[in-house]
Design goal:
47% helix, single chain, six-stranded parallel beta sheet, Glyco_trans_1, 23 strands, TIM Barrel, alpha/beta, Rossmann fold, transferase
Length: 923
């Protein structure tokens, strides 16, 4: 049996990183006697970092921080730093001003240098230069080779910070860059307080792998002389630490200990900054501090956004659209500036942003605020108090408290939004879900092109009678604060994690190159339905059982109120849910986005699968953007066919849905389909998906339970015998399943076989109507797997009148129990049924009636067809289908070799002919 990954080892990925890095820091802490060490944060910023490297910041005219130098100095002193330095971008203004005031400071800056052959920018921390040298360094930074050579010539020490993070739009980062960096730099920042643990450990292992032989080899390969850059290949590389703090939250909590022998005596004659500079040059450095995951950057960006919201000025339309950058960047900045400027009109929201900023600095809201604030928002004050209190405990406690509070605050705000939506007249007076059909939603949902018309009730005396004509003002008055705060929290979480993983492909490549710390390959499978009563749920349940049986590297996550967690299955309660009565018992559940993001991160997943077009589809695309991971969609339903069979929408209206679906499916890295017709449609002119991104797959049969006995026909129809012909259908009782074709079909059959019976299993919105149209039918309602097996075994012929199904799981179920199937020659059925061998494919109702009559007129054919049906079912075993599924997802390195697959002992042996069928399916 093939076992690819163990679930526990996957979840331990981040724990292994944490353990490895803690061991390194523990060893470093014992390297030098603490009494002879100067404590310094070698990497921190204040408001003189006023020209950010990020394009959006430059377009919007935003500094990287509003932190005053005086406040930064106080924070560094409070955290026990013995030496002060400020490493602003491309300038040392703060250092010069401190020196003018008589403050001892190590002059420094973080220069952005250009790598010409790779079209990317690299940050370089630079120390101990003069004002004249600063000017020259700024000139030299347009070429990193010239910059580093000049620094070496004048004995100016350099540190390469966050070596695995670059500023580039080039998605292909070549490993040759690191061969050159190994030759050009002696010092590397291994501990960066704003980067995640994975990057830190990768940096550590890479630098420690740089032997003198490797550096000499790289030097010859790239025709670089290490001596030109002040590098001695025979000396070990030097590792440093810094907080990379911009907001004044973590400054001094991460940094470096600089070893100065006989420190106490030397301080009598030299300034700390002079001793620190000499220690940096000598390489007597030991990093210290705490590295999180994305939490620290998340906190820093939250503080940054709160300050942007209160301090941003209108950048001006001309600045935005005439600035350097792509159109999508400019449009994004235009949207962001409008949102932030609009938020400034909401004084309560602005006040709360100020409270968040204060809490992150350790300042609690005033007691008076508890009495002034609405009871709906008291939970916000509690979280702010928790954050402020934790600041005084420890850095680790603070980080944990802030991130826990953000998640819980997001959840509470969402519950408040739901509560207010339910109470507002927007819903109460205008929206009645029970009256909404697909047809009505499609025709009514029309957003005006004039944006102000969407929000202002004063734009016209008579509002259009569509969804956009509803009372948005009433809704916005009630939702402005919780919605804006939810947007900010969501945006911060997205931005911080995306920033860390925008070069994820490169990090994977780098880890593979090192042969260490490779991210585990594991997928999180999101679905809106797993425990519901429908065919999609049954198919997904079968997939989950195979994942559990073989311990495959996939975990399901569903949103449900009562489902229980299992191995490979996580269950989250929904924020809210509502049902659509026109679609039977199906519930729409709204998931907790933040909690799912936390699970994805902490679980060590590196790809996403989604199999339903509901809320989970939006969550999957959010995770894709947030973590920069591949995301796949599994199509179960042909919605265009569904709409065609259930509504009176015309072609133009159906095309609107088709374009929306095309937009959705194109966001995914791959789409799995269940039949060839669907694959051709997706890759054809109507949907225009790339052929290599559409994968043909299949559902698989479930192992048959031989302990189940056939049902006695007399238990269903007292007036019949075991020889009475009985048709069977199991499906959702809904119009699109073709169930209302049955009365006409049965009427014709009865003319030749008057005693024929029909049994229908399933539930759905049209059960009562079907019973009235077909009073002689036995409608059993929803049946368990055991009950269905007894029906398959005891009845005669499965009739499948649907022209809409993409696969037809019930056809496989019928086959596995030896029941032939008659179905229309369309989509899923025609890929499964072999005409006249294990069933019949027909074109219309007349043919279906004729073939039913013919089948029962030649009973000797039945046993042969039953045997053929069982053999056909053997072609759809779980093992090969799931292994091919893993390969298409990138979770398996080799394509499926059918002959090496061991089939579960509970299934039936496979013949040579069946092997060929299976090869065809997975191919």
């Amino acid at each position: 049996m093939i076992h690819l990954f163990n679930q526990s080892s996957t979840s331990d990925f981040r724990q292994s990183l944490d353990s490895e890095f803690k061991q390194y820091l523990q060893k470093e802490s014992q390297r030098f006697p603490r009494a002879d060490c100067l404590k310094i944060d070698l990497h921190c910023h204040d408001r003189n970092s006023d020209v950010p490297d990020e394009l959006w910041g430059r377009i919007l005219g935003l500094p990287e921080t509003w932190l005053k130098t005086k406040k930064l100095v106080k924070l560094l002193n409070d955290n026990g730093c013995d030496v002060l330095t400020v490493t602003n971008h491309n300038n040392a203004r703060s250092c010069w001003k401190l020196l003018e005031k008589g403050v001892d400071v190590l002059v420094a800056a973080e220069f952005t240098c250009y790598f010409p052959e790779y079209e990317l920018f690299v940050h370089v921390l630079t120390y101990g230069f003069t004002p004249e040298q600063e000017e020259i360094l700024n000139q030299k930074r347009s070429n990193i080779y010239d910059f580093v050579r000049y620094a070496a010539e004048w004995d100016i020490p350099l540190i390469l910070p966050h070596p695995l993070y670059f500023y580039t739009r080039n998605e292909k980062i070549e490993l040759a860059i690191f061969e050159k960096l190994a030759v050009m730099f002696q010092r590397f920042e291994v501990l960066n307080g704003q980067r995640d643990l994975w990057q830190s450990v990768l940096t550590l292992n890479w630098v420690q792998s740089l032997t003198p032989e490797k550096i000499e080899f790289y030097a010859k390969k790239h025709q670089l002389n290490p001596a030109d850059f002040g590098v001695n290949p025979l000396k070990p590389k030097i590792l440093t630490g810094g907080s990379d703090d911009h907001m004044g939250i973590f400054a001094g909590e991460c940094g470096s200990l600089l070893y100065v022998p006989n420190l106490e005596e030397k301080l009598k004659f030299s300034n700390p900054s002079e001793l620190a500079l000499e220690a940096i040059k000598q390489g007597n450095i030991s990093p210290f501090g705490h590295v999180g995951e994305n939490q620290k950057l998340n906190i820093a960006l939250l503080d940054y956004f709160t300050q942007i919201a209160t301090k941003i000025k209108d950048p001006g339309l001309m600045r935005i659209f005439l600035h350097y950058g792509e159109t999508k960047d400019k449009l994004s900045c235009f949207a962001i500036s409008n949102l932030l400027l609009e938020m400034q009109k909401h004084k309560h929201t602005m006040k709360f942003f100020e409270f968040i900023h204060d809490a992150l600095q350790g300042k609690k809201p005033s007691k008076l605020l508890q009495w002034q604030i609405s009871k709906d928002y008291k939970f916000c004050i509690k979280y702010l108090e928790d954050i402020a209190n934790s600041k005084k405990v420890s850095p680790e406690k603070f980080v944990d408290t802030v991130n826990r509070s953000i998640t819980e605050l997001f959840t509470q705000l969402n519950h408040l939004i739901v509560k207010r939506i339910k109470k507002t007249s927007f819903v109460k007076d205008k929206i009645v879900l029970e009256g909404f059909s697909t047809e009505e939603l499609t025709r009514k949902f029309e957003i005006p092109s004039q944006v102000t018309a969407l929000f202002s009730s004063k734009t016209s005396k008579k509002r259009p009678k569509d969804i956009s004509g509803l009372n948005f003002n009433d809704l916005l008055d009630n939702l402005s604060f919780p919605v804006l705060m939810t947007i900010i929290l969501t945006g911060v979480t997205l931005a911080s994690t995306r920033l860390l993983y925008q070069n994820r492909d490169f990090l994977n490549q780098f880890a593979n190159h090192l042969g260490k710390n490779s991210h585990r390959k594991r997928a999180l499978y999101l679905t809106d339905t797993l425990k519901d009563k429908n065919g999609v749920s049954n198919s997904l349940s079968g997939k989950l059982k195979e994942i559990q049986r073989a311990d495959l590297p996939i975990d399901f996550l569903i949103c449900h109120d009562s489902a229980q967690e299992e191995d490979h299955l996580m269950v989250l309660p929904p924020i809210t849910s509502f049902s659509l009565p026109n679609y039977g018992e199906q519930e729409i559940r709204i998931p907790n986005l933040m909690e799912i993001a936390r699970i994805f991160y902490s679980g060590g997943y590196d790809r996403i699968i989604c199999s339903t077009e509901g809320p989970m589809a939006l969550v999957s695309l959010f995770l894709k953007e947030m973590f920069n991971v591949p995301c796949y969609f599994f199509m179960h339903t042909d919605w265009i066919d569904f709409i065609k069979h259930t509504t009176n929408l015309n072609q133009h209206e159906r095309d609107r849905i088709r374009r929306l679906l095309r937009l959705l499916y194109k966001q995914y890295n791959g789409v799995f389909v269940l039949n060839n017709e669907h694959k051709d449609w997706l890759t054809g002119y109507q949907m225009q998906l790339e052929k290599e991104k559409v994968f043909l797959t299949a559902h698989h049969t479930k192992p048959r339970d031989y302990s189940i006995k056939a049902i006695d026909k007399k238990s269903l129809f007292p007036d019949c015998s075991e020889d009475t012909p009985v048709l069977f259908l199991a499906c959702r009782i809904s119009r699109e399943k073709g169930i209302f074709e049955l009365p006409e079909i049965l009427k014709r059959v009865k003319q030749s076989i008057p005693d024929i019976k029909i049994v229908i299993a399933g539930s759905g919105p049209d059960s009562d109507e079907l019973q009235q149209a077909l009073p002689e039918a036995k409608l059993l309602g929803w049946q368990s797997h055991e009950q269905l097996s007894a029906l398959y075994l005891g009845l005669d012929l499965f009739v499948f009148p649907s022209r809409f199904d993409t696969f037809g799981n019930v056809i496989l179920e019928s086959f596995s129990h030896g029941m032939p199937v008659i179905a229309f020659n369309c989509k899923g059925p025609k890929d499964l049924i072999e005409h006249h061998d294990n069933g019949y494919l027909v074109e219309n109702n007349q043919q279906m009636s004729d073939y039913i009559i013919n089948h029962f007129s030649h009973p000797q054919k039945h046993s042969k067809m039953a045997e053929s049906a069982i053999n056909r079912a053997k072609s759809y075993q779980a093992e090969p289908i799931m292994q091919q599924f893993l390969f298409d997802l990138g979770l398996r390195d080799e394509p499926v070799n059918i002959n090496q697959i061991e089939i579960n002992e509970t299934t039936i042996d496979i013949s040579e002919a069946t092997i060929e069928n299976t090869k065809r399916i997975v191919a």
